[in-house]
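Just wondering, does anyone understand what follows?

——
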Amino acid sequence: MRKILFLSVLASLPLLATSHPARADSASAVVGEVQPLNTGEDVYRHVCQGCHMPDGKGATGAGAQFPAFAGNAKLQSSAYPVYVIMNGYGGMPWFSGTLKDDQIANVVNYIRTHFGNHYTDAITPADVAAQRPATSPQEQ
């Protein structure tokens, strides 16, 4: 059996030597045009809504629960969503290494003023920076 396996691998080597890895004509053909995430809505649409849904009502399935933002009393304190975004919570990953302070402030302000929420005390990038952990959650 080993001899057959060895011979089949040996026979396939010339095919591997002549094949070339797939490549695109340009980087944009592979990853598309990367758009900056400047507004809270931009961040929400590209980062959050996959789990929390376009209407902010969350979802349940596959053994996971994605909390709703719609009418969520935990959003009354702007510090809570900032903490969760930066450090993760339960099944939610942390984004402190991915999102900048202004992006976190913008998305927190967005979810606190949309989906039936009316918390108008805006958080600033400086407020977010003050909550940023000294080390990433991955390093802790």
Summary: Residues 15-30 have pLDDT under 50 and may be disordered. The longest strand covers residues 59-61.
